[in-house]
Structures are given as C-alpha cells and as structure tokens.
Amino acid sequence: VVDFSEAERTGFVNAFVRFWLKHTNLRDESELRKRGDELLRGCLQHFQRSITRVKRIAAIVPVEQQLHFAKKVNRLLQAKDSNDFSQLAKTLEADFPKIRPWLHWWLRPEHASMLFQAKRNMDPLLLHSLPETTNAEESIHFSMY
Predict the structure, then answer these.
(1) pLDDT tens digits for range 128-145
(2) Distance between the two ends of the chain, CA-based, in angstroms?
(3) Are the C-beta atoms of 36 and 17 separated by less than 8 Å?
(4) What is the DSSP string of 49-86?
(5) What global pTM score does this model have?
(6) Distance of CA 9 to the CA centre of its chain
(7) pLDDT score for 130
(8) 2 - beta bridge partners?
(9) Which of 9-13, 52-56, 102-106 has the lowest average pLDDT?
(10) What separation in angstroms does the CA of 50 have from each of 14, 22, 89, 140?
C-alpha cells in the first residue's frame, strides 16, 4: 500500500525489477515492470483526504455542492467497468469543471490502477489481503478484524 508518491511507486517497481533480474527469472524487464505495477495498491485514506481538501475550496466546489461532489467522486471507486468509470469521470468534470487538473492527476493510469476498481490490474485475492490504507492505526484495525 503506497501513498501515490511518484518516488515511492517508481522506487518499488525499480527494486522489484532489480531483485528479479538478479535471481532466477524467465521474464524480461518490461514484463517485470508490469508485474511490479500490479502489486501496488494506493492508500484510500490519502485519496479521501484529497477529496476533503478539494471540496473545501469554495472557488472549486461551491459550499452547497460539497456533499454532492464527495459522493460523485467516491462513485468512481465503485465503477464496475471502464465505460462506467469514464462516464462518471466525464459527468464529474462537467459538473465541477474547475477540478479538471486534480481529477486528471487521479485518472493517470499509474494512479488510477492503484485505486479504482474499474482500472485495477491487481489480482483480487492479493487486493483483499492488503489493508486499504498506510495509516498505522487503520492498518492495525485491518489485521485485528
């Protein structure tokens, strides 16, 4: 579980590739990079905090629209397929055009694949074995329950 830092993501993938290239391995570097990316899960708490920060900027999200905005963004997490996801993102951007730079950052493939169900490449069994957050307290709760 990572916090969407480019350095953290890149560092993990590079270390994964270097490790497997030094050991018995039948895959080339590009296949290893793809596999490394598939092992990353983004921190849900970091995403939720980002939503909160953006919705509190009244120039971007009008005060009376804050709850509506948060609900629409969170629907992206549950989109079942790429078409549904794309439609939800387009509607969100049309309803809140000033979020475009923020939204497009989250929609970048390297971020979206770590967070959104419709864009995820991670094996579902692995996904469900990992906590949703890097927050230590939340991680401990995950392991206890």
Answers:
(1) 666 566 665 455 545 544
(2) 18
(3) yes
(4) HHHHHHHT-TTTS-GGGHHHHHHHHHHHHH--SHHHHH
(5) 0.75
(6) 11
(7) 61
(8) 42
(9) 9-13
(10) 27, 38, 16, 22
The residue with tokens 């804050």 is 66
What pLDDT, in 10s, does the model give residues 71-114? 999 999 999 899 999 999 999 999 999 999 999 999 999 899 88
55 close to 61: Cβ distance less than 8 angstroms: yes
- CB atoms closer than 10 angstroms to residue 95: 13
**Of 89, 52, 87, which is closest to residue 67 (Cα–Cα)?**
52
Contacts of residue 116, Cβ cutoff 8 Å, sequence gap at least 6: 76, 77, 79, 85
3-state helix, strand, coil in the chain (%, to 5): 70, 0, 25
pLDDT of residue 145: 46
Q: Are 40 and 126 in contact (CB under 8 A)?
A: no
Number of other CB atoms surrounding residue 84 within 10 Å:
15
Among residues of the chain, what percentage have pLDDT more than 90? 45
What tokens were used for 133? 């957050």
Which of 70, 90, 74 is closest to 82 using CA atoms?
90
